[in-house]
Structure formats: C-alpha cells, structure tokens
Design brief:
The structure holds 2 protein chains of 2 kinds. Chain A has 12 helices and no strands. By secondary structure, chain A is mostly helical. In chain A, helix 7 (about 135-145) packs across helix 10 (about 190-230) and helix 11 packs antiparallel against helix 12 (about 250-275). Chain A is flat and about 75 Å long. By secondary structure, chain B is an alpha/beta fold. In chain B, helix 8 links the parallel strand 7 (about 190-195) and strand 8. Chain B starts with 11 loop residues before the first helix and ends with a helix. Classes of the chains: A mainly alpha, B alpha/beta. Chains A and B meet through helix 1, helix 9 and helix 10 of A and strand 6 and helix 5 of B.
C-alpha cells in the first residue's frame, strides 16, 4: 500500500546503519510468529486466567455457592435460562443506546457553541464540571420523583452520565483543528459551515471516539441505575435488584456477567469503528 | 473571465486575467497589481505594544516574484497576511487590482502556502491538492485548474504515483510539495508564501526552490514570498524587499539582475554572489 520515495528509503536505511547492531536483532525477535500469537491471545489469557483463579479459590477455600458462586456455576446459571438474560439485556442495551445517542447529540450541540464562543465555554464549563462531580446515585431518586416511573427517568440518567465526556472531548476536538488549515480556508473565503463540516468535525473525530469508549461503560451504569430507581419491570438492573431481594445469587452474578459481556462487546464495536474511520490518525498506527 | 460571483467588471478579477502570451520570461506585465501605502500595524501583548509595521509603502507588479526578506520580528509575515486579507492594517491602505483586499479574498484571488504543509491527514494527496478548489467550486469559479492540469503539476514536483498516499506516508519535503501544488491548483493570480521551505533540510530546500520556479513559470502568477534566507530570495526573486525590525519597515528594495530561467549553476556564478552580497549589505546596514 505504502510507496516509498528514494529519499525515505535512504532515511530508513541510515536509521538501521546508525543504530546498535543489536537493535536489528531485537526487532526481528520481537516480531517472531510465536510472540505475535502470544500478543494476540494476551487479552483472552488474562480473562481466562482471572476466572481460573476465581474458580480455584472457591474450591480451595470451600466458599458456599450462595455466598460467592464460581464462574462455572454462574455460566451454568445463564445457560439454564438464556432467554431470561437475552430479554433483559435487550431492554438495557436499548436504554443505554438511546441515552448514549441523546447525550452525543446534545453534547455536540453544546461543544459546537463552546468551541466557537469563549464566553459560552466559560459559562457552560462549570455546569458540566458540577454535573460530573455530583454522584448520579445521589440525585437519581430526585429525577424519579420529578419525572415519575418509566423509560423517561432512565434515559435522563443515562444521557446525563454520558453527556460530560462527549462535551469536554467534543470541545477539545473541535478546537484541535490545525490553525494553518483554518487560515487556508479563510484565504479562499470558505464559509463557516464549510470550515465546521470539512475541517473542525473531522479533526474532532479522534477525541469523539475516545469519549465514545468512556461513554459506553457510563451508559450501562446510567441505565442499570435508572432501572434500580424507576420501578422498571425489565432490564439487567431490574434483574440484579430482584435477585438481591430474593437472595438469588446465581441470577445476580449472571446479570453482572451479561452486563460485562455487553459492555465489552459495545466497546469492541466502537474500537472497530474507530479503526475503520481513523486509519489516517497516528493513534491507529503501530 | 468575469464569473457570476458578484465581482464588478472593474473588480480584481477583471484586472487580473493571466497573461496568455508565451513571454520568454515569466515576469509579467509589471503593471501594479498590489499597492500598499502607509501601512502600519501595532500588536499588544500583555500590556506591551509592539510596532509590527510602520509606514510601509510597496508596489508589486502583475506576474512579479517578490520576496520579503528580513530577520525574525521585522513584520514580513504580518505584511503578507495583510496583503491576503487575513489581518487588517491599523493605518494605511492595501489595494489589489484596484479593489480592497477583502473583495479580492472573496473573489478567490489568493493561493496561500503556509510554513507548515498543513495537509488534511484524513485525505489522500489527490484530495488534498483539490481541497481548496473544492471549497471553491460551489461558488462558481472558472479559474481553478482541471484534473489534467493538477496532474501535470503533481508530475512536475515528482509526486506522480503518490496520488492515493496519505500525508503521514510522505516525507516533509513531499508534504510541502503537495502544499505548493494545492496553492497553484486554486488558479489564483496571487500566491502568498510564508517561509514555505523554512522547516526543510538544506538539500531538500535547494530542490524545492527550482520546483517552485518551474511551477511558477507555468502559471505566470504573482508571488509574494516571505523568507529569511538571503540566497533563497536572490535565486527566486525578480525583486527583493529587505525589511528591518523594531519597528518593522521596508529598509531597501533590490532588483535581482539575473536572467531567467534560473538554474542551480547560477548559484556558482560571480553575478549571483554579487546579488547576495548587496542583499547582505542591506540587511547589515539596517540591522537594529
């Protein structure tokens, strides 16, 4: 894909020639197939290793199933009624997705205004910080009292927790555009609209993807918390709450496992999208 | 040449049609294209006022290659930006083709080459060189180059085959060549270059000078070139405006008496050394 001109070929060859001869050796061994396979499998080894230690500890210390079940038991619990978890996961994912999207859209609107006006930035930023530092769990009941039971308070809570990362990163991203590029656009009298959509927004994408990765986890927290407080009759948060009330340890842990799986899958989806969209960005290069 | 862009027949566009004759030298008609008179500019930073420019008078002819040469802080970049309508003068007037600079900017009379290549990292070389013209086209402009003309420029600067590469795959010199082609592709009659080769190594820099001259000879555009390199100013320019600092002002103007086309061999000739010597003397004399 990449073509080299004679000059950069010359540059890279001098790099090797100048360096310690051992460097070349180290570089070769680092990319050996076994090492590459190990690096590829490292995340799986980490997770499986953790679960194995957990499983082993249960056996060694003889911990009772209703106190702390083993991963094997938990997975068995999920397998015994998969539709229960699928149904509840669907509810939670939908709530999280809606909250995430609402937060993104509102934050982009706010970030655009803040990026263009120093006054707006100074006026909005303290509110954003307050929103971020006040624990959602503290004012969640207040939202339910104000908005009543149902989907609405859940979406408000989910959007609130996702809003700040998108806002802060959005402002940062929209401002990160190369000033030389802005000047170039001005030199041909480009409109502010063109400046925004063709320069600022693409420049903001790396920051927005970072925010997206943070917000995925927060969206799940927001919707689970919403389900705790808003009298829901579905969702993984609801399932956790009822499990606690009836001492159904396996269902509790099963819901947590499914939540972890959903969060990991969503994060991977965002990372995949980022890889495709940001091929040009330095963060995506080895 | 007068498009439906709201430019009056007496506006800049009408005044700045490109010469179509195959003149032996790319030096144009030398009718005044840019007239600067009594331009002053003050900057205030943390309570301190700096006189960036004081009473600058300068006339630049159509098709002329003029360099603004001087030490850091002599206001040469500021003057360039005032000509381009990117900054406003506190006092004095700048007219471009008889109209004001904002009018000229709105009529797309400028091609800018900044010091950094400033390429869009998410676009290929081919899309980068068309970026400014794509901002352009929507408002109807006939001067922008067509694909064949742009391709010819890419071949000239040795970027043929790199059209689908991304900026991060190119060396610094290659990126700056893309930036040069991008400015020429606008088809603007006035090219403003703000130390475009300053960040390049000496060897690449020497090549870039002749690439620039090659591109320029094809377009007959007027070039205002900011530099702090005496030899660069001498080998490129028809005329060098020597500037001095504190306050930023025009210290001297020198016509470079070297035939065109300029060649690397000329840099070894006594006549070239004489031009350089005169410019150095001017710089020394006015060095504050």
């Amino acid at each position: 894909m990449m073509r080299l001109d004679p000059q950069s070929v010359a540059d890279s060859s001098t790099d090797v020639a100048d360096g310690d001869p051992l460097d070349g050796y180290a570089r070769r061994s680092r990319t050996s197939p076994i090492r590459r396979l190990l690096l590829l499998l490292a995340p799986v080894i980490g997770v499986v290793g953790f679960l194995a230690i957990w499983q082993l500890s249960i056996v060694i210390f003889d911990i009772k199933k209703f106190v702390l079940p083993s991963p094997w038991n938990i997975l068995g619990g999920i397998k015994s009624d998969p539709m229960f978890y699928v149904r509840n996961a669907r509810t939670t994912v939908w709530e999280s997705f809606l909250g995430f999207t609402i937060a993104f859209l509102l934050a982009m609107l706010g970030a655009t205004i803040m990026a263009l006006s120093k006054f707006a930035e100074r006026a909005i930023l303290p509110l954003a910080v307050l929103l971020q530092v006040t624990p959602l769990i503290a004012y969640a009941p207040a939202i339910v009292i104000w908005q009543g039971f149902g989907l609405k308070p859940i979406l408000i809570m989910t959007s609130l927790v996702c809003f700040v990362p998108f806002l802060i990163n959005g402002v940062l991203g929209l401002r990160s555009v190369d000033p030389n590029l802005l000047e170039l656009a001005r030199s041909v009298d480009a409109s502010r609209r063109e400046e925004f959509f063709r320069l600022r927004l693409p420049s903001a994408l790396p920051s927005l993807f970072s925010a997206g990765r943070i917000a995925v986890g927060l969206a799940l927290i927001g919707s689970v918390l919403g389900e705790f407080f808003s009298g829901s009759t579905g969702g993984l948060g609801y399932s956790v709450k009822t499990a606690q009330a009836h001492s159904l340890t396996l269902q509790l842990w099963g819901s947590v496992f499914v939540l972890a799986f959903v969060g990991a899958a969503a994060t991977m989806l965002i990372i995949g999208l980022e890889r495709i969209t940001l091929q040009w960005h330095s963060s995506q290069r080895p | 040449m007068i498009g439906n862009t709201g430019v009056s027949p007496n506006g800049p566009r009408a005044m700045m049609t490109h010469p179509t004759t195959d003149a032996p030298s790319p030096v144009g008609t030398n009718e005044p294209l840019v007239s600067i008179s009594g331009v002053s500019k003050l900057f205030s930073r943390r309570g301190r006022t700096v006189e960036a420019l004081r009473d600058v008078d300068l006339t630049i002819g159509d098709g002329e290659f003029v360099s603004l040469l001087g030490p850091s802080g002599c206001g040469k970049s500021t003057l360039l930006r005032i000509i381009g309508g990117l900054q406003t003068a506190d006092r004095g007037t700048v007219s471009v083709g008889g109209g004001d600079v904002q009018h000229a900017r709105a009529a797309k009379q400028y091609g800018l080459v900044p010091q950094a290549p400033a390429l869009l990292p998410w676009k290929t070389v081919a899309d980068n060189v068309r970026f400014l013209t794509s901002l352009h086209r929507r408002r109807g402009s006939e001067q922008v180059m067509n694909d064949a003309e742009i391709q010819e420029l890419l071949v000239t600067v040795g970027l043929a085959g790199f059209e689908r590469s991304y900026p991060h795959e190119l060396s610094g010199g290659m990126q700056q060549r893309v930036s040069l082609v991008r400015a020429f592709a606008v088809g603007a009659p006035i090219l403003l270059m703000d130390e475009p080769f300053a960040a390049l190594d000496e060897i690449t820099r020497a090549d870039m000078r002749y690439l620039l001259l090659d591109l320029w000879s094809r377009t007959h555009a007027t070039v205002v070139f900011v530099t702090h390199s005496v030899t660069e100013a001498a080998i490129l320019s028809d005329r060098v405006v020597v500037m001095a600092a504190r306050p930023g002002r025009v210290a001297a103007e020198r016509t470079i008496e070297l035939p065109r086309p300029r060649t690397p061999e000329m840099e070894d000739e006594p006549n070239f050394h004489e031009q350089v010597r005169r410019l150095r003397a001017d710089l020394r004399e006015h060095h504050a």
